Amino acid sequence: MAVIEYEVRDRIAYVTLNRPETLNAINNEMAGAWNGVWERFRDDDDAWAAILTGAGDRAFCSGADLKEMGASHESGPNGGNPRPKRPSEELGVWKPIIAAINGYAIGGGVVFAMDCDIRIASDRAVFAMPEVELGVVTTWWGTVRSRAHMPFGSALEFLLTGNRVTAQRAEQWGLVNHVVPHDELMSRAEEMARKINSNGPLAVRGMKEVLYRSLLDGIREAGRLEDVISVVASQSEDVQEGVRAWLEKRPPQFKGR
Questions:
Q1: Which domain holds residue 141?
Q2: Is residue 248 part of a domain?
Q3: Which of 34, 159, 196, 206 could form a disulfide with 84 if both were Cys (CB 3.0 to 4.6 A apart)?
Q4: What phi, psi does 176 have (nearest 5°)?
């Protein structure tokens, strides 16, 4: 069974993160499959819009699978692992992507949601960027994307505390476009996709590309800085301690080095 499923119906590509037993946590296989799925969507003439969601009823994506990634990479949960690319900025996916956030969106799960163009969240969804609790700097341009989607102060609170926030707070901050009753989530995402698909596809893709390119230079520069800082931080003693503490289910003892 594929860790990311892909199916097209009525010009909508349904992309499903498919590790429900781990709350759709990102392991090496999923991280490696991510780029290929979006390249497939980009080149699929039968698909005009995509909906990204998580398998099961509890989670969109719970972030890095530390039991796999942390155990195999002592430098931290992201060090040395496959890097998912951003569909629009790096893979040239100018078709619209809608996130149907059906539960927990944690760490890399938030980044995956921010890789989409429109985010619709279940009223049960919960968001958090808890990397700081492990001593880790958010990667995959998660820091940069947070600033692009939220007011500066909200982005700082979200990233520096690691606190969980409700779907309603995420909507207030601008992280998600709409919050809907849980049982209506997929139908509302499909309604959005059908409305977009009723418009001229070349116009839709052209306007998305213009909007992203208007932001791209600044995002790229900040993203490169994030990459450098995250690599330095990933080599610290604190990251090794943070990952071990999480796996051992105890509070970390950080030393600032």
A1: 4-197
A2: no
A3: 34
A4: -125, 155
Greatest CA separation for the chain: 56
Tens digits of pLDDT across the chain (257 residues): 899 999 999 999 999 999 999 999 999 999 999 999 999 999 999 999 999 999 999 999 999 887 776 544 333 334 455 689 999 988 999 999 999 999 999 999 999 999 999 999 999 999 999 988 888 777 777 788 888 899 999 999 999 999 999 999 999 999 999 999 999 999 999 999 999 999 999 999 999 998 888 876 666 655 565 566 566 556 676 666 666 776 777 777 766 66
In a domain? residue 97:
yes
C-beta neighbour count of 66 within 10 angstroms: 20
Domain total of the chain: 1
Determine, yes or no, domain membership for 252.
no
d(C-alpha 165, C-alpha 104), whole Å = 10
**Beta sheet of 126-128, edge-to-edge order:** 59-61, 104-106, 126-128, 165-166
CA-based Rg of the chain, rounded to a whole angstrom?
18
- The closest alpha carbon to 109, from 148, 159, 64, belongs to 64
* CATH number, domain containing residue 164: 3.90.226.10
Helix segments in the chain, DSSP class H: 28-43, 66-72, 108-114, 131-134, 142-149, 152-161, 167-173, 185-197, 201-234, 237-248
Token code pair at residue 33: 């499959």
Length of the chain: 257
